Amino acid sequence: MTSIYLNPYSIPYSNWYSVLQFGATGDGVTDDTTAIQTAITRAANNGGGIIYFPRGTYAVTGLTVSAANITLVGTGLRSTIIKKSASTASTQAILITADYCGVKNLTIQGVTSAAYVVDENGITIRGTSSAVQINGINIDTVEVYNVGRAGIDVFYASNVLVNNCRTHNCGYIGIGFWSSKYCDATWNEVHTITPGTASNAYGIVYSYKQAGDTQASYGKAEHNYIHDISLWEALDTHGWTHVQFANNTIYQCKRGIIIGIDALNNFVPSYCSASNNTMDAGSLGTILEGIILAGIDGGAHAIGGAISDNVIKTYTGYNTSFGAITVYSTTGCAITGNSLYNSYGCGINLYKDNTDVLVVGNTVAGIVTGLANASGIASRSTGNTGLLLGNVIDATAEYGIYAPFDSTGIRMGNNPITTSGTTYSHPANLGIGREIYGSGTVDPGNCVDGTALAPLTITVTGAQLGDAVEFSAPYDLQGLTVTAYVSATNTVAFKIWNKTGGAIDLASGTWRVRVTKL
């Protein structure tokens, strides 16, 4: 995909236009807007080119690139600075409305810090509609700060790459993609995004411009460092399909990654993923959300989502409906290989209405109690089906697995659990395949040849009639035939026959069992 982007250094020198040649001063005081716009017009008349900004600070009211194949190029961050004039705070510093354009190697300085100002963006990229998009935009090695809305905002565009940029001290969004497709944000740093008019703040967001737009698709946010967003999320998609959030580092953001619905058009996310991200809530407190994947509550499901191999520290939900990882209204969601540490209240929360959810190979360690019914993994409502297998839970909490409602549609494999509380909150609510471990003292005594001993029993909490039982004795059974079975609720019995041809006397010992729900 990157081959479609204009490489400014492949442009012949004859197509480079220095803004100084057109009367710009770069002194940071003189309004250089007209001179720069004249250089852009000259390049447009010649089929495109490079608008070159030598070292300096260029005061502008706002620049517009409306012809194709034009890239604005500076000498480096904080070397070339485009400085927005205070008198025009509600407009963007640079507006791009044509194909194959870009901005490279410069800093954009706005006029507003820690406040929301409508349409005060560093760079705005804007097509006409979902059906009429501009194409092939490359923003590379650009810094934007002190703007009232977004550092970089993209509307109705396709094949957009924002790479190696830094956006900070923005009043709403670091980098935004709206009603677009094939939009990538890679190796960027986004930080200190402050709440806007609706108390929202986003690091990188994939969303929609307005009702009636067609569903957007295909985006990647990879290898970004997003930090210090005290409200709302670091990474977000509202109802896009095929969005990948991978290998990002998130620190001190109130919400980590949200893959959710678009309320304007009721779009649900499909085939989106969050993988290999590292998240640490830092010192922000306990009212946090790590990763959420969700469809419409009571309606259309998010399809085919994946949450895998993330490391999440000190995150959780703000109430018992959420966890460090939360999913609801999904079909075919996979939660695999994640490592969750010091989550407050809950590690993985299958909130409700998840069909064929796969929860495999996760590690949940150090659950911090504080919310009611703290647990490593929770199925907090009905309608969940799928598989829990190979999850290692060191909960130090009330429950290893919490299931207050019917969750028998979830097949339970071996999930090693260590907890200072209760392993399972409601064993009867958990589904087939769940394994329960127990042990107890069994004293067979003398068993005469050709006879059977009266059944010997131990207590195994959660065992029910019809469950399968495997057992291990602490010594050689010397040819005795032993059958283990559930004889009553919470009771495992051992039937011992002697068909060896001689009497056998077994000592008292601790017998261990594994009970599997069938």
| Average pLDDT rating | 91
Please, what is the CATH homologous superfamily of the largest domain? Single-stranded right-handed beta-helix, Pectin lyase-like
Q: Strand share of the residues? A: over 45%
Q: Give the radius of gyration.
A: 31 Å
What spatial form do the alpha-carbon principal axes imply? Answer: elongated
The CATH topology of the largest domain: Pectate Lyase C-like
The total domain count is: 3
CATH class (first level) name of the largest domain: Mainly Beta
CATH hierarchy: architecture of the largest domain: 3 Solenoid
Percentage of residues assigned to helices = under 10%
Q: How is the biggest beta sheet arranged?
A: 41 strands, parallel
List the helices and strands and how they pair.
Blueprint: E1 16-18, E2 27-31, H1 33-45, E3 49-52, E4 56-60, E5 63-65, E6 70-73, E7 80-84, E8 94-96, E9 102-109, E10 123-126, E11 134-147, E12 150-155, E13 157-163, E14 166-170, E15 173-178, E16 181-186, E17 189-193, E18 202-207, E19 217-222, E20 225-238, E21 241-246, E22 249-260, E23 273-275, E24 278-280, E25 289-294, E26 302-303, E27 306-308, E28 311-313, E29 325-331, E30 334-336, E31 339-341, E32 346-355, E33 357-360, E34 363-365, E35 375-379, E36 386-389, E37 392-394, E38 399-402, E39 410-412, E40 417-418, E41 422-424, E42 435-442, E43 445-447, E44 456-459, E45 468-472, E46 481-488, E47 491-497, E48 504-506, E49 509-516
Parallel strand pairs: 1-3, 2-4, 3-6, 4-7, 5-8, 6-9, 7-9, 8-10, 9-11, 10-12, 11-13, 11-14, 12-15, 13-16, 14-17, 15-18, 16-19, 17-20, 18-20, 19-21, 20-22, 21-23, 22-24, 22-25, 23-27, 24-28, 25-29, 26-29, 27-30, 28-31, 29-32, 30-33, 31-34, 32-35, 33-36, 34-37, 35-38, 36-39, 37-40, 38-41
Antiparallel strand pairs: 42-49, 43-48, 44-47, 45-49, 46-47
